[in-house]
Amino acid sequence: MKRKSACLLLVVAVVLGGMYAALLPARNASAVTHRLELTVGASTAARLQLRLGDRAVLVVHSATPGEVMVHGLTEQETPVGPEHAASLTVEAAAVGHFPIHFHDPRGQHVSLGELDVLAR
């Protein structure tokens, strides 16, 4: 009887462990993190190509205060200024073209570049 109980307990533990593993969020093993340094007022706009699920770490430098954001992927505005660079981490959660903008205190939008997100 003890042997049957031990076997049953082992089977239940294996089944529950498998169910737990199946319910964990899927991790994209092929996702890549990219880093891009941008400067407000640079003569050329940057373009970074990502795959769905990748991450981009954007480091933005500016001689004037303002905010940086990636339109369409995040609506979070990150402060930047002469004393500190802005660091944004953006996940490529949708396919498309997403502009990176600097917003100055007067409401002007300055294009810093674009993130192009492609399907996997």
Molecular structure report:
- The chain is α/β, with parallel strands linked by helices.
- 18% of the residues lie in helices and 43% in strands.
- It has one helix at residues 2-23, and strands at 33-39, 46-51, 55-61, 66-70, 78-80, 86-91, 96-103, 109-118.
- Strands 2-8-7-4-5 form a 5-stranded mixed sheet, with no helix packed on it. It has a 3-stranded mixed sheet with strand order 1-3-6, with no helix packed on it.
- The longest helix is centred in the first third of the chain and has 22 residues, at 2-23.
- The radius of gyration is 23 Å and the shape is elongated.
Jot down its keywords:
120 residues, alpha/beta, five-stranded mixed sheet, three-stranded mixed sheet, 1 helix, 18% helix, elongated
